[in-house]
Please model this.
Amino acid sequence: MLSCTDAQIWGLRSINSVMMHISVGKSKRVDIRDITIVAPDESPNTDGIHVQQSQFVSIRNSIIGTGDDCVSLSEGAEDITIRNVKCGPGHGISIGSLGKKGSQATAANIHVSNCTLTKTTNGGGSGFASNISFVDITMNDVRYPIIIDQYYCPHSECDAQASAVEVRDVKYIGVTGSSTREVAIALNCSQSVPCSGIVMDRVNLWNSNEGEEVRSHCISADGYAMNQVTPAVSCLTQRNLAS
Model:
């Protein structure tokens, strides 16, 4: 879908696409709902829904399982709502990335809520983005349930340390579930351009492997934690406020 306004995709079923199943570019006011997307979990570049250079896109009430991102939002994706989506297998819901040859790709005003991610690589992740929220998210056997990675680089030409741009105002509220790895929360931010405004409230993650613990990993991130946050995140200031 390219250069569309007031477009709707309802009730579509897409199976085993060789590349992205649905791509939205240079569009405004797009409503995607009640769709099913299926691809093998080892099929590369089979993103369920990819959005770039588009505004006011709604994705809801859908089931997506692929070999790549369930939903990927990159350069110029703004004012995006994702609600009631079941994701998995796949890489999760990915927001922001570094473009080829160091070009900066940003995403802003993204709100993800009431979603379930099962056996995905990532849960809620952001690369280069601002004003993002993940609310009431369930993780089932996810490799990296919460991850912010300013050093993510899909292209060999990237110089992540030199190219990192600001990540700010990212909220995780009511995120619960299981991690398949010890590090359940990873905030991998640039020392030159730290992450700021990170908020975690009522986050409860545990290890899928009985008897094993989870922990967080935090570099150059600033913000605060409210109420219960498990595992604790050392770089976030604790605020004991009511929800």
Summary: Residues 160-163 form the longest helix (4 residues).
